[in-house]
Design goal:
By secondary structure, the protein is mainly alpha-helical. Helix content is 43%, strand content 5%. A hairpin with a 6-residue loop joins strand 2 and strand 3. Helix 3 packs antiparallel against helix 4 and helix 3 runs parallel beside helix 5. The chain is globular. The termini are far apart.
């Protein structure tokens, strides 16, 4: 939900530029599996704690769509590629998880999570399918 102002177009370009800078910073949100729910510098960050760092596919998609809206499609594509390469189980036959560990890519949360499955389909269509 932190990317909502970019996703819904409420941010100014200057605000979006500042947010994207933090999104792309490897000391903040650009982790092994990028765009978790808390920055690495957040004192409450915990890669295994619910809503304190884990990566949810829907929130990841909101972030990329927000980046795209403000002219950062190439950066969004790089993050999407990183996500698919590092989130465990996405390139093999297996369950789609509720969320993923931002530091290791380990599967977390509920298996066979339809919300994640739907957003993986949206990610594919929006960022990988040939137009």
């Amino acid at each position: 939900e932190g990317w909502s102002p970019l996703f819904n177009g409420a941010a100014t370009q200057a605000n979006a530029d500042a947010v994207v800078k933090v999104m792309l910073d490897p000391k903040e949100f650009n982790t092994f599996v990028p765009l978790g729910t808390a920055a690495l510098t957040n004192p409450a960050f915990g890669a295994d704690i619910y809503w304190r760092g884990r990566v949810w596919v829907d929130q990841f998609w909101f972030g990329l769509k927000g980046m795209e809206r403000y002219g950062y499609r190439d950066d969004a594509l790089k993050l999407a590629d990183t996500f698919f390469r590092h989130a465990k189980g996405l390139t093999a036959d297996g369950p789609i998880q509720e969320n993923y560990n931002p530091l290791t890519g380990a599967q977390q949360g509920a298996p066979n999570f339809s919300w994640s499955a739907a957003h993986l389909y949206m990610l594919y269509n929006d960022f990988f399918r040939k137009q």
